[in-house]
Amino acid sequence: MDLDTTPALLVDRDVLDRNIARMVASARSRGMSLRPHAKTHKCLEIARRQLDAGARGLTVATVSEAEVFADAGFDDLFVAYPLWVDTARGARLRALTDRVRLTIGIDSESGARQLADHAGTAIGVLVEIDSGHHRTGVRPEQAGTVAKAARSAGLDVRGVFTFPGHSYALDAPDNAARDEAGALATAADSLRTAGIDPSVISGGSSPTALLDVPTTATELRPGVYVFGDAQQLELGAAAEADIALTALATVVSARDEVVVLDAGSKALGADRPAWATGYGRILGEPDARITALSEHHATVHWPNPSTRPHLGQRVRVIPNHVCNAVNLADELIAVSGDAVVERWKVAARGCNT
Amino acid sequence: MDLDTTPALLVDRDVLDRNIARMVASARSRGMSLRPHAKTHKCLEIARRQLDAGARGLTVATVSEAEVFADAGFDDLFVAYPLWVDTARGARLRALTDRVRLTIGIDSESGARQLADHAGTAIGVLVEIDSGHHRTGVRPEQAGTVAKAARSAGLDVRGVFTFPGHSYALDAPDNAARDEAGALATAADSLRTAGIDPSVISGGSSPTALLDVPTTATELRPGVYVFGDAQQLELGAAAEADIALTALATVVSARDEVVVLDAGSKALGADRPAWATGYGRILGEPDARITALSEHHATVHWPNPSTRPHLGQRVRVIPNHVCNAVNLADELIAVSGDAVVERWKVAARGCNT
């Protein structure tokens, strides 16, 4: 591959397009719309491919991510986060509502009032519920209470959403999908009891989004599925043929069964859930494991001597958590086969606010 | 504090300067020079403070970090990494040698030949040895063999270096410092046996750098000590009064004994060694723990109801591993007491190549 230097993040454009198409088709076949989470790729070019394939709007995590995509013309954005809106953030949201159909997450009555007070009421909201991940969100049966407070504050309550993040554990995705379906149904009923008809019932995570579990959800918001990563592999949510993003790395040191690569936590991210078998995988070498990770070193145990790379050789690393890897890079290098075909700026890199 | 938005990385400038001065004084009192690792801060302003306080040159991890500091006039740089130097990287190194006294790490005979072939011989080298971390570096008694190969290739062999990274474990720093001292002495002897007198014998890590262990080292290269972090706290290498960098974060969700902050792994980094008690600490609240971390959420178990913050309140988070937190930010906000005094660009952010 004609690349001067490593580490570099490569995106196999053919695999990417296949992942994008499959998720749209899967959601459509079950009567749901797809609003992919753009925090994974942070790239305008990939977001356009998702919309061109049939996705309806984008999900983002922060106001600054919304600003980047709005500046590029994306006009239907959901900030899937219970923002605490003060004067400064309120002014930024008001500026967005001029040009974007904007929806924001809320998970408290006071958060809803803050939003209305500082950003105005030209904003839709979805009430976040906890479907088992125990991060943010109210209990499903409390959704109506928060929704009524939001409506009293003048906000347009459009429905409910959840993130079934407890799908990120071994053997967990199927149960998490069922928890999600149950919680969303309860929350939607809670809104109806409060006199509010939910037009959006939104869920989804990459480990659960392709599972055919009965649900009343109207919308899915997976993010990681566009690229896949080592976590999805180990959860059984992706096969190696679905991995679109890898970090190209060079062997800088070697001894016995170990090679050390020049891609560390500042290129791959430091994610390593307790259930993971290592800090990342090697494309095409299922028995190799990254057993230690420093900022610029990946220590790889590579048992097969016939494939073990020598000093100076390049290999492709599958990061554990691709969202954090992408957020460390300034650009993604799109390839088709062994040819570099495009370079995509990580336009929303570092957009944490 | 007069800051519009969160998350944001704050540096207490007074604590920073105290940390900088203490390390210089400690090294000097033991007859060693200090070459701090700039990968931690990646800031020109902080590097200048280190040199002004008495540090001798900088350590960096990559060629692109060296380029950033060289462009700003820093003229004595050690790349503490066994670079694999191909044509492209060789050209970049040649361009640096015009204006910088440059030293590079090597840990193989073929790596040394690559360096000489592609970057020329106007470069000094230190042979990297493994003092117990088992990452890169040759065994101490092999240092002379690599040094002779480097000298045969025409390189200026200046000495040996190691990183005692096995100091990053509970109760490990003291033993790691002793391992380091023994390994460096053996490696220096190995060079002398090969007819090369080492002028630089370089070691150091933040958990070990202040320990008064007898050593023949001439130079220390700690990085994290400027800021401190939750890892250093838990290793006993820093007290809370030594913590100079925190992430200002806002409470966005709350329930029972839990508050959720808007600083996640995209602001703090995802580091969590097995021995750590959580994903980070809260300044001034030693019993609070970050028990889960998503990209934009820190889930904090906060047992004390009288200090537990309410929705919208701001708190200061101590990241587990400050080097990875800094590399996610575009700027550091320097404060003195509660006043913002300067803004420092993270000039070498993302410099992985």
Please give a structural write-up:
- Two copies of one chain form a homodimer.
- With 353 residues, chain A is an alpha/beta fold.
- Chain A folds into two domains: 13-226, Alanine racemase (TIM Barrel); 233-345, D-serine dehydratase-like domain (Lyase, Ornithine Decarboxylase, Chain A, domain 1).
- Chain A is built from ten helices and 17 strands.
- In chain A, the strands form two sheets. In chain A, strands 1, 10, 11, 12, 13, 14, 15, 16 and 17 form a nine-stranded mixed β-sheet that branches. An eight-stranded parallel β-sheet of chain A has the order 2-9-8-7-6-5-4-3.
- In chain A, helix 6 (143-152) crosses helix 7 (173-193).
- The longest helix of chain A has 21 residues, at 173-193.
- The two termini of chain A are 37 Å apart.
- Chains A and B meet through helix 5, strand 10 and helix 9 of A and helix 5, strand 10 and helix 9 of B.
List the helices and strands and how they pair.
2 copies of one chain form a homodimer.
Chain A: E1 8-12, H1 13-29, E2 33-34, H2 44-52, E3 58-60, H3 63-71, E4 76-79, H4 87-97, E5 101-106, H5 109-119, E6 124-128, H6 143-152, E7 156-161, H7 173-193, E8 200-203, E9 219-220, H8 230-235, E10 245-255, E11 258-261, H9 265-268, E12 280-282, E13 289-293, E14 298-301, E15 314-319, H10 322-326, E16 331-336, E17 339-345
Parallel strand pairs in A: 1-16, 2-9, 3-4, 4-5, 5-6, 6-7, 7-8, 8-9
Antiparallel strand pairs in A: 1-10, 10-11, 10-15, 11-14, 12-15, 13-14, 16-17
Helix pairs in contact in A: 3-4, 4-5, 5-6, 6-7
